Amino acid sequence: MPDHDHLFHGCSMDGGRFSLAVTDGVITAAGPGVCGSAAMETDFGNDFIIPGWIDAHVHFNEPGRGDWEGLHTGSLALAAGGGAAFIDMPLNSSPPVCTLADFDEKRRVAEMKSHLDFALWGGLTPLSLPHMEAMADAGAVGFKAFMCHSGIDEFPHADAATLRAGMRISAARRLPVAVHAELPFEVAVHGRDMKAWLDSRPIAFELDAIRLALDLAGETGCALHIVHVTCAEGIDLVSDAKARGVDVTVETCPHYLLLDVQDAIRIGAAAKCAPPLRSSARVAALWDRLLDGHIDTIGSDHSPAPPDMKQGDDLFAIWGGIAGIQHGLPLLLERATSILPQLSSAVAKRFRLAGKGGLSPGFSADFAVLRPNHSAISGADLLTRHPISPYLGMTPRLAVASTWLRGERVTPATRGRFLAPSPF
């Protein structure tokens, strides 16, 4: 009998040889000197083996808005971008995930259509408070709140009182609350173009909201996860709160590290997001915080929409969301390979996804294979439902050759599994 079901050989990102032995979808040995017999053996040559990205911030929009993306196309695009698992946000599905029935229906649809393993966020809104306990019992990984208008009327924002009440429920269940941290106030702007949009949402929106969320998390003892922070000042507020004992983690997104305001003006609607892109100096400062270890996770915030919602001269009326799930990881890794934990193991740890996020014995054999690339990104490459991306025309130095889930290559025939947070 062979020692292993499968042996994989390739390179680590530092260039050394690296092998994985896998049995029943679980890694049994890993490192440069793995040996033994196997029923199957795959040698990737000089390609790199990395842990699969666990993207904790996607909007695949099913059920109800599958024409915006869908779990089938979204999960295949994420796999093509090196992702092995995701956590789907409670919006922009219709209805959003704010009750047990909504949660169960999204899980049912995802189990039918997703090609990657997945977990689900529940919603924290004024309407969902009575339903949070039931969603926690059903396996919600945590609860998502907007501190400003979400863009979807079905998912109302959480004011301070609602957020406090939701945090108390979450703290009792030892589940995190994720917040979209912006507190808008009146800002004078001129015009309706991209520059006016950028000017309309200054960094003060973020900082005011982050301070409030941190105060409420400290008061309630709730685990807090602040999503898509765009600036070093916001990261510093989180670092200071950690030093005070607040249980908080912070996420940024590939587009805040790869694009700046000049790119937003050049690209137009495909680069509209909230919070908006920032100046090149602020992008550099955000990279400093990331490389210094002050940013905990990286999520795509993949928020697609049909082409007719991403067109027009009025940037304020255009749907705000960046669809870059397929190329964010390789574009980041060509800049820095030390960020792999923020894409995998740190995500699994924060959201208690047992057996995920590592390339060590006992972990699920979820990995991506990267190789050198010389081709520019084109719309024809995109597996998302709509060929919209702010990265079109870029030429990443790395490309994802394949992604593997539990030791099997991800294909349209692959079926993902629901991931509930593990017990403490």
Elements, N to C (H/E): EEEEEHEHEHEHEHHEHEHHHEHHHEEE
Determine the strand fraction and express it as a percent band: 15-25%
Q: Label the overall shape.
A: globular
Specify the CATH architecture of the largest domain.
Answer: Alpha-Beta Barrel
The number of helical segments is 13
Please indicate the count of domains: 2
Helix content: 25-40%
Major sheet summary line:
8 strands, parallel
State the low-pLDDT regions, or none: none
Number of strands: 15
> Any idea what the radius of gyration is?
21 Å
Keywords:
about 425 residues, alpha/beta, Urease, subunit C, domain 1, TIM Barrel, 2 domains, 8-stranded parallel sheet, 7-stranded mixed sheet, 13 helices, about 20% strand, globular
Care to describe what's here?
The protein is of the alpha/beta class and 424 residues long. The chain has 2 domains: 95 residues, Urease, subunit C, domain 1; 299 residues, TIM Barrel, CATH 3.20.20.140. Helices cover 29% and strands 21% of the residues. The strands form 2 sheets. An 8-stranded parallel beta sheet has the order 5-6-7-8-9-10-11-12. Helix 4 packs across helix 6 and helix 6 packs parallel to helix 7. The chain is globular, with a radius of gyration of 21 Å. The model has no long low-confidence stretch (mean pLDDT 97).
How would you summarize the topology of this molecule?
Layout: E1 4-11, E2 17-23, E3 26-31, E4 38-51, E5 53-58, H1 71-80, E6 83-88, H2 100-113, E7 117-123, H3 132-137, E8 142-146, H4 160-173, E9 177-180, H5 194-200, H6 203-220, E10 224-226, H7 232-243, E11 248-252, H8 254-258, H9 261-267, H10 280-291, E12 297-298, H11 328-333, H12 340-343, H13 345-350, E13 367-372, E14 398-405, E15 408-409
Parallel strand pairs: 1-4, 5-6, 6-7, 7-8, 8-9, 9-10, 10-11, 11-12
Antiparallel strand pairs: 1-2, 2-3, 4-13, 13-14, 14-15
